[in-house]
Amino acid sequence: MKARAALLLLVTLAFGAAPFLTPPFRGYDPALFPVNIPRPSIQPAGYAFAIWSVIYLWLITHAVLGLWKHAENPAWDAPRLPLVAAIALGSAWLSIAPVAPIWATVTILIMAATAIAAFLRADTETDRWLLSGPIAILAGWLSAAAAVSTGVVAAGYGLLTDTSSALAMIIATLMVATTVQRRKPRMPVYGLTVIWALAGIVVANAGLNPAVAITAGLGIAAMALILRATLRA
């Protein structure tokens, strides 16, 4: 257990350092795609990405405390391996994204899957805000981010129109997020993070693409209802 706790701290520190070692990422370069879309509709407004500061700090706190005080605790150990996989891939993702959107999308889909697996394995009753909370925010953001990446690539390669791609990915995000949140009713951070991402899509598309803005807004309402229902259960 202690070795896994140490490995988690190591990859989390590398994850936190990655933004300082790579150029700032502000979305895929439209020039990399056959269909040039200057601002994909599925992409949230820039302010939404500020959540990464919270994610980094919360995950580092989780990893430090996990090694320092909970290295041999089975509840803390249960989500470590999938969380290590998600965070290790995240450390490399910023180097992949500026040059290879398809591979970056494959990578972030795996990151999302492993982060969700870690969240589902996390005990939401034991040290919930330090154990499951930071995993929940990572899983919630990656659930949305994986859909954003997929939507940008699908539209950029002409598989769907920009609007169709955005609508499909909002629906896909909700399908995943509602399923996950129902399985972890005691940790609302996951659903709240998805709502944060959807709000960024609403802001980005308000007045520009009403169909996408309205659909994202309905998604927020749906997630809010799921959270209300699960917390009351």
Polypeptide structure, described:
With 233 residues, the protein is mostly helical. The chain has one domain (2-17, 40-232). It is built from nine helices and no strands. The chain has helices at residues 2-21, 51-68, 74-77, 80-96, 101-121, 132-156, 162-183, 189-205, 210-232. Helix 4 (80-96) packs antiparallel against helix 5 (101-121), helix 5 runs antiparallel to helix 6 (132-156) and helix 8 packs antiparallel against helix 9 (210-232). The radius of gyration is 17 Å and the shape is globular. The two termini are 33 Å apart.
Calculate the terminal CA-CA distance, rounded to whole Å: 33 Å
Q: What is the strand tally?
A: 0
Rg over C-alpha atoms, rounded to the nearest angstrom: 17 Å
Which regions contain 5 or more consecutive residues with pLDDT less than 50?
A: none
Structural class assignment:
mainly alpha
Count of runs of 4 or more consecutive helical residues: 9
Our estimate of the beta-strand percent is under 5%
Question: What is the 3D form?
Answer: globular
Number of domain units: 1
Mean pLDDT: 96
Residues in helices, as a percent range: over 70%
**Oligomerization:** single chain
Give a short account of the largest sheet: none
**H/E series, N to C?**
HHHHHHHHH
